Amino acid sequence: MGDMFRSEEMALCQMFIQPEAAYTSVSELGETGCVQFRDLNVNVNAFQRKFVTEVRRCDELERKIRYIETEIKKDGIVLPDIQDDIPRAPNPREIIDLEAHLEKTESEMIELAQNEVNMKSNYLELTELRKVLENTQGFFSDQEVLNLDSSNRAGGDEATAQHRGRLGFVAGVINRERVFAFERMLWRISRGNVFLKRSDLDEPLNDPATGHPIYKTVFVAFFQGEQLKNRIKKVCTGFHASLYPCPSSHNEREEMVRNVRTRLEDLKLVLSQTEDHRSRVLATVSKNLPSWSIMVKKMKAIYHTLNLFNMDVTKKCLIGECWVPTKDLPVVQKALSDGSAAVGSTIPSFLNVIDTNEQPPTFNRTNKFTRGFQNLIDAYGVASYRECNPALYTCITFPFLFAVMFGDLGHGLILVLFGAWMVLCERKLARIRNGGEIWNIFFGGRYIILLMGLFAMYTGLVYNDVFSKSMNLFGSRWFNNYNTTTVLTNPSLQLPPNSSAIGVYPFGMDPVWQLADNKIIFLNSFKMKLSIIFGVLHMVFGVCMSVVNFTHFKRYASIFLEFVPQILFLLLLFGYMVFMMFFKWFSYNARTSFQPETPGCAPSVLIMFINMMLFKNTPPPKGCNEFMFESQPQLQKTFVLIALCCIPWMLLGKPLYIKFTRKNNAHAKHNGQLTGNIELAEGETPLPTGFSGNEENAGGAHGHEDEPMSEIYIHQAIHTIEYVLSTISHTASYLRLWALSLAHAQLSEVLWQMVLSLGLKMSGVGGAIGLFIIFGAWCLFTLAILVLMEGLSAFLHTLRLHWVEFMSKFYEGMGYAFQPFSFKAILDGEEEE
């Protein structure tokens, strides 16, 4: 948990790597995933960097892998999952072998695909010819009455036939959707002198290139004259109609059909053998393709990273800069030594920690439990370097505040079951790749859902609410002191607490409130006060957390100039209001005989707070006191005056302190600051990062050394106004805890009374069937409205309370995330895309 308290300490390092060991060293660093490299070639074009050729080589390998993967998916072959055995980045010899293998496989696949397209085209043409020959049987008579001539006869015979007045014909196949336009065009060019007969093919043909079904129609066009024949052929070409030779003799057509069928059978056999060969090749490749894809991605990432390095003057060493968590420095040094040893380099690579004034990235080390809560915080803004991390406390406060709004034992149990299922089966569920964005959100927050459900069950027990019903676990502390006649003759009876109650219910709400007419009034008062108490405690905790930041960054003056007036303003006004709530609960008792201490004389805390702020008085009822204790009016005035004095304290304290410290430190800079820490005094050692060294200088100035005083006054005025107004608005904002809790309870009660209770009132066989249907509807509405919609609403409101009301008291969120070079992150990111 020490890692969660604040971000880890980072070091800016400079590494020197021999060129022959650069690839393997960066590969080892990618496996560790704890180094964020800086680009030392910002001014160099991406196409002019040292390893751009290797990157293009990787791009070409990726293109080949994508092509082969597409072909594999076409055949419906399932690629194996290798999440448990991820290969390492390939060495140079493996790269050459992989490149040759992919080149061979791609060439073979392209050749097979081209041959397949050619054979399918031939198969399609022969199929169309067979269809033409078979369908034109009905277009001609067996006796050849008209002595028709085919369009494929010799030119002299055609001229003779046309001269004798005989009809010629053209046969072919055309897409079905073009038939009507084709027929209309033939009628226009021939002025009605073309006789067209057509027949639709029942079975669709397959496109050789795409494999999509094509619906076609066989046609025969009869005409007279050579000129008309040429026109018809041009129209067929324009409509992409395929023309085929068709003999006019019946015997010749029968012979041609037999030949075509024989050729089709032979071609079908060849196609089948080609498909089998293709399937065998793809099945063999599919076993290794996922590994190849990962290896190429890693190789490309390595060369992209090497492009961030700079070559030294002698061209014998690669120099890189990177951010490394100080805890991982030994890991990085070991990775560099392993990389050098892998290639047998005689000169070892080494790592130097260098000093810098640049702000390091923020790195919070998380596990599968804390990652979800850290993501909630990072969504608001990444913490500044070494700033106090709210995620540690959000692990408890977030599910608790959610549960205050979602307090129901039954609904909380549903969340617990759902969250526990995702937690217990997380290894299996983590393999789901196509679950969608919503599923990824739910699965990523599985521990949040589990904790929200557990806390909702706890608050459900406190509210004594299970699907809008109460449980009598310990026996009610209220009793009925009326006789039977009085109970039966009166629609409602009052139970005074001084005579009808004994003690206090051991845990949570007494179940008798479920029957009371003033149930909502009582619960409203209780939950409203509870929300204010939790809200003020939450905000006080947030203000106190700022002391942790001030102490760590050595801004000790800010403790007096910012924290003290802020905490005084909050406690003397709203902390006092919370105190009065508890004082009212303890001071007024129904069993006392002293009238000013009876519940009827208890003043309203809200009215008392308003009168306190306005210095007003409200006359109490007869026999009652206006205040709860004697010195209360003087104490309230003192608190208000001190709170008002805190406003100029916050407004002017920090700017005046900056002004005076600037004058005193104008000529007090030491030699190290003037020369950028180049010269070190005797006995001094360089810090891992110079950013920590600046924290003392920012003790009261908060980094405003170069800012004009006018802007400092303006900024401080804005912050003061924001804090004063937000203290009031944020306290009122916590009333959403009461509002959503009330809405959730009322919706649950409405669903019970308006839906499920109707089925429970039915009787007989029809009642059982009706209860079964109504129970299903009640379950559906409970899950859809109360668990899903109300749960999402409570989640968003809880998120707002943490982002705005809690974190604004101490959290800056002005940092940038640590993004290490990690193969795991690269592969996971590509899977999500």
Automatic annotation (TrEMBL):
Give coiled-coil spans as residue ranges. Answer: 95-122
A biological process from GO: vacuolar acidification
Its main localization is membrane
Gene Ontology CC annotations of this record: plasma membrane; vacuolar proton-transporting V-type ATPase, V0 domain
Which stretches are transmembrane?
Answer: 398-424, 445-463, 532-551, 563-586, 638-657, 768-789
Membrane topology, from the record:
Multi-pass membrane protein
Cellular localisation: Membrane
Output the superkingdom of the source species.
Eukaryota
The record's annotation in InterPro entries points to: V-ATPase_116kDa_su, V-type_ATPase_116kDa_su_euka
Keyword vocabulary terms for this entry: Coiled coil, Hydrogen ion transport, Ion transport, Membrane, Transmembrane, Transmembrane helix, Transport
Cited function: Essential component of the vacuolar proton pump (V-ATPase), a multimeric enzyme that catalyzes the translocation of protons across the membranes. Required for assembly and activity of the V-ATPase.
Q: What family name appears in the similarity comment?
A: Belongs to the V-ATPase 116 kDa subunit family.
- Protein name as catalogued: V-type proton ATPase subunit a
Organism (species)? Drosophila rhopaloa (Fruit fly)
